[in-house]
Every structure is written in structure tokens, then in C-alpha cells.
Amino acid sequence: MAQAVQDQHQAVPTHAPRHLLRQGAEGAAREAMPPGVGSEEEEDGEEDLEVVLVEEDGFLRLRPSSAAAAGSSRGSGSAEVSSAVLGKSAEDIDVELQPLAGEGQARKIAAERPRKPLYRAWPSRNKFFCRGMLMTGGETELGITQNCSVPNLCVWTCILAPCSLYFLWVFPHLLRQGCYAMPLATLAVFLMATGFLLATCCSDPGIIPRREVIIATGCAADLEAALGFDTLAQNTVPADGRNGATKVPVDLTSRGYRWCRTCRIVRPPRASHCPDCDNCVLRYDHHCPFVNNCVGQRNYHFFFGFVTSVLCLAVLVLPVLFWFLNSDDFEMAVDGVNALTSGTLQPLFYALIACGALIGVATLLSFVLWIYHVFLIATRQTTKEFRRSIPNVNEEPTLCASRGPRLFDPWALVDPRDLIRQDEAPPPQPPAFCGICWSDE
In terms of pTM, does the model score above 0.85? Predict the structure, then answer.
């Protein structure tokens, strides 16, 4: 039978499962044949029926060989072998043909299982936009959806609402008065604040890919070169990562390296696992619902720049806006609008004043937050280290330090089934906010 299977003109096993192909042709045939087929030697004293594996319509089936078909006519009846489907269609199965028994070192690999870019099959709660170039975090407590939080919408409202009034009323008024420096400076700071906010919301905070991602993309060597250690601990930890907490090398644990039970990798000092985004993040500071993302090694610069620029923007916009709202020009404009609308828009102006007061309170809180992070930068601490009194083992700075490279390739082709842990079901994927506009599916 092995000789019949080796004849590639008659049998081309292209869609068989891996566990059958690895056993050799004879074992695969016997395993897939219905009971009673091929056992004629025991019943009638005849030789075993020879079968071959043939490809038909994208399936691998068992068929009697030509010699066996001719010899079967000598019996009492024609021995018919029912087709046994050994594999699925090529659209569903990743085929890797291992050497059959007696074939030597010949090997043929055919990758026909559909693969997706990593950003489309990302196993945690992050959401990718613009074909993997941008990403945002997940929000489990204060989110409208998994990737859109209420605090983040409030931040955008507090920035865009007063700035819209400023550029609609105050900006042209100052230009007409011949004052160019302040409105242009305000415009520049506004662009900086929105740019830093977008960069913080939509950038990689320093995610360390989990074990399944590392194995599926084959980036273990690149990670070791970038981080200086083997995140999989392949010399001491089993391939599935089980019980890895007790098998991390002593030379790593003595320097602050820890085992992540969720990602099943070794993470460096100051890295931590974010429960909201479900990732390990380098130099993890905190998960910020106001930016809907983690704040870590690769976006802390953007976060501090955002806090600084939004504070400067509030100093430039709010006083001038309040001055203009109390000016004679604005009162004349309000009187003209009331005359045209019979006073129906007057409550709107009171609502604007109330919103301005709330934005003023938010500005004071932003100032407190800025002072707090200036203290953390001066003492070389992160938010988590300060709150839990965790010492900075390596005394590395938080702001004046390199961002480092991205540790995963969002465009690497992977099989989504390789990213699912064997001991858990895949997490549900709720619809993303503005999915019609942003989704890459």
C-alpha cells in the first residue's frame, strides 16, 4: 500500500489532516477506512485490499487501486470501498505534508489555510484602525463600547467646545484688532494638544506580545534581540507555557523579571499586565480612560505632552473667551440675536456659561495632574510604582528615555486559530464604535 500511495500520479494527498499524514500512508488508510474494509484476509483468506489516496473536488478520499479493482472482480462480489473523507476543503485546512514512511527526506509544504494580518486577529481587547497603523485600548468599566470610553469623549468635548467658540468669535475679532501673536499661538497650541491626544490614544504603549502571538509570528529571536532576554524562556519553560512561574531562570528573577500567568511570558522589570487591555506593557504607568489606552514606555512622552499642552491651551483660551463673553461687542451681538429670534436662544448663552465653569474646574484638575507627573518624572517613578511603593530597580528615567521599537508586526500573516489558547475559548468581539467608518474587515 505504501508503494501505491507514493505514486504521486495516482495519489496526491494535499488536504489530509496533519495527524494522518504524519503516520504514513498505510496507517492513515487503515485509520480512515470503514470497519470491515481491508480485513478480507481474516474473513476470506485473501490479500488486503490496496487503496490509494486521491484528490477529488478539494477533498482527500480513499479509492481502490487499479490492481486491486481488477483483482476484486474474481471474488463473489465486487469489493467496493466507500469514499472516506480524510480532510476538509483547502479553504479551511492548513496543509503541511510530512515525509511518509519510506520516502526518505522528501518534504512538501503547502500553506493553503487562510491567513490574516495580525491586527485583524489580535487576541486581546485592543482595536486597530487604518489597516493596523493605529490602535487603541479597551475599556471595561466606563466604556460605551469596548473601544470607546465616556471619559475620552468628555476630554474631546472639553477641548473642542471652548476652542470652537474661540475660533468662531474671538479669533476673527482679535485679527481685526491687529493682534496676531495671541491667536496664532493659540492655534499652534491647539494643534499640539489635539495631536498629542491622538498620538496617546492611537499609539502602541509598548505592548509585549503574548506567547501565542510570538509563536505564530515567529518573532522570538527579534524579541530577544530587542529586550536582551528570551521572553518564552524556552530552555526552562515547556512549549505550552504551563507552570512557567516556577521555571523562570534565577538570574532573571533576581533582577526583577517576572512571569505573567495570562500572557505566559517573562516580562522585564517595570512592565506589568493591564487588565483593561489584556496585554503586558513595558514600563507600565497606568491605564488612562481619558485617553482610552494604556500609558507606557512608548507613549508616555505623548501623554505628558498632551497634559502640558492642554494646560497651556486652557490658559490661552479660557481667560480670553470669558473676557469676550463679557465685552460690549458680545453683548451687542447677543442683543441682535435675541431681537431676531425673540429671545429663544437666550438659555443657550447661560448653558455656555455653565459649560465654561465646568471646563474651568477641569483645567484646575489638569494642573494638579501635571504637577503630579512632574513629581513622578523628577523621582523616576511610574504611577503604579508610586501607588504601590515599588522601587525602581534599575533607576531608569520615565520621560528622558528611549521609546524603543515596536515589539510586534501588525501586518504579519497568522492563522487566527493559532492565537487561541487551548485552555480557554476565544473572547467575544463586541462591535467597535464607528466600525463602519474605521473597520478594516
Answer: no
